[in-house]
Design a protein that fits this description.
The protein has 488 residues and is of the alpha/beta class. It is built from 17 helices and 16 strands. The relative contact order is 0.09. The structure holds iron/sulfur cluster (SF4).
């Protein structure tokens, strides 16, 4: 467990906007820090963009201290010395500490307070700026808030990939609520342990759910599928305080997927609609290619025609079944990180040569289609064969969602849930790379940090095993669905 903080920070005030109790946890039971692979990747993007942004403010003074007391001291010194641009200055007012990304003196004597964001829009960042403006104004600064973010249409050939969006009006509207939120938060964090809060839909995705509500039944409302408008049912059940799926009222109008879920829960077996085996046999043709990509979406473009956060595939895996009842053969491609160039061409040429001109390409999301369509836009000379692949794609995820459910899916149709359902509850945890974000991290380590040969070999093997497991899972799922009528 991490150390309890003696002041509130901007992140805690933001979290309090979603849930006061979650903010309480952040103060009284902080995690160890560092976060998961997604958080680390977000920080990497932010670091890349920050380097570009700081180059726009030559002579800016960087406040490097992490400790808030020392950082405030350095900030004061820099301001007294007449510095007009400060990176990550520190301010504390009324128990709330902030570290704005950039504070820039304007010619009219006011200050621009810039949030630097590795995103292609400004809207999501107004709340954070409102907290900073609230504190700075209380300290006597006249401030104009804005966001420096990425221009989603820029490429490496653009004069700049950055955009500045001033958002004084939007932030102004948020200020009254921020003031009252901080007051309420300070009152709440003084309480030793808050009593249970009323649940909301977002609780289903909260990492603290089981700690926050240890009384939550195992088969609870958050297991209900929320797509296709299913979230309305979840909202209504929470509102009526019906949290146990075993107490679901008969009159409740469920979505089709939810009805199948409930049938599976009640019987403890798979529930099916229609005839999946027949439907699959009619809609697919041999050879069958079970395909999955791994991609990276860097914030800062590096290759031809690449936009910020553009899709860059670096790997694929494919299991091929040539005919009914035949074995699955595995093929794969992973960009050679030593070549230092653009991975896209090698990925699509190798893929085109395997997929040929006939057979169904089975995937488990809409993502593979998007990757191929984007590659067709970038590589015009290969656009025709790439678009021909798109017409052969069959999305098994969409198909399963609409016809099949087993209790082991645990309320989710993700690839990992499918794998667990097909393999006695096992997970991907035995792999060196166990999810898509970890795969991105591993690939970036290869291309940007050039690890020693032994580690490089291990990372490449981990990436190959991970992607291979995804396509093996899609193939196993297909085989299961072809037998499903006999089972249910
Ligand atoms: S489970 Fe819900 S109420 Fe509890 S901390 Fe999380 S979001 Fe807040």
């Amino acid at each position: 467990m991490g150390r309890k903080r003696r002041y509130l920070d901007e992140g805690t005030v933001l979290v309090a906007g979603k849930c006061m109790k979650l903010a309480w946890y952040r103060v009284h039971r902080p995690g160890r820090g560092g976060g998961n692979a997604a958080a680390r990747l977000g920080r990497r993007h932010k670091r890349d963009v920050t380097v570009l942004v700081r180059a726009l403010f030559p002579g800016g003074r960087r406040i490097v201290e992490r400790n808030i007391v020392r950082a405030r001291r350095s900030t004061r010194k820099a301001l007294c010395a007449g510095k007009t641009v400060l990176f990550r200055p520190a301010f504390l007012h009324d128990g709330v500490a902030i570290r704005p990304d950039i504070l820039e003196r304007r010619s009219d004597g006011a200050w621009n307070v810039w949030a630097v964001k590795a995103s292609s829009g400004a809207e999501r960042h107004f709340q954070g700026l409102a907290v900073e403006v609230h504190i700075l104004r209380n300290l006597g600064f006249r401030v104009v808030p804005g966001v420096i973010h990425l221009d989603r249409n820029a490429t490496v050939r653009s004069a700049s990939i950055l955009k500045r969006t001033v958002c004084a009006r939007q932030v102004e509207r948020l200020l009254p609520e921020i003031g009252s939120r901080i007051r309420e938060l300070k009152r709440r964090v003084r309480i030793d342990y808050p009593r249970p809060f009323p649940l909301k839909r977002i609780c289903g995705r909260c990492e603290r759910l089981h700690r926050c509500r240890p009384d939550l039944p195992e088969r609870n409302v958050f297991l209900l599928f929320q797509g296709d408008g299913g979230w309305r049912v979840v909202d209504e059940l929470i509102e009526r305080e019906i949290l146990d799926l075993d107490e679901l009222p008969d009159e409740m109008e469920l979505t089709h997927v939810q009805k199948r879920q409930m049938a599976a829960f009640r019987s403890g077996r798979g529930a099916v609609s229609g005839d999946p085996a027949r439907s699959l046999a009619e809609r697919t043709e041999y050879p069958l290619f079970f395909l999955d990509f791994e991609t990276v979406s860097p914030a800062v473009p590096r290759y031809r025609a690449q936009h910020p956060f553009d899709i860059i595939p670096f790997q694929w895996s494919c299991h091929l079944v040539r005919g009914e009842g035949g074995p699955a053969e595995h093929f794969g491609y992973l960009h050679d990180d030593r070549d230092g160039g653009d991975p896209r061409r090698g990925v699509i040429e190798s893929l085109l040569s395997l997929l040929g001109g006939e057979g169904t390409i089975l995937v488990y999301s809409g993502y593979e289609r998007r990757v191929i369509e984007r590659m067709a836009e970038v590589h015009r000379d290969l656009a025709r064969p790439l678009r021909a692949l798109v017409s052969r794609i069959f999305d098994l995820h969409e198909f399963v969602e609409h016809c099949y459910y087993v209790p082991r899916f645990g309320g989710s149709f993700s690839m990992k849930s499918v794998y667990a359902a097909l393999h006695e509850g096992r997970s991907y945890r035995d792999l060196g790379v166990s999810d898509g974000t970890a795969a991105v991290e591993a690939f970036l380590r290869l291309v940007e940090e050039k690890p020693p040969p032994e580690e490089r070999k291990r990372i490449r093997e981990n990436l190959i095993e991970y992607c291979k497991r995804d396509t093996a899972t899609i193939e196993s799922l297909y085989r299961r669905l072809m037998k499903v009528r006999a089972e249910c």
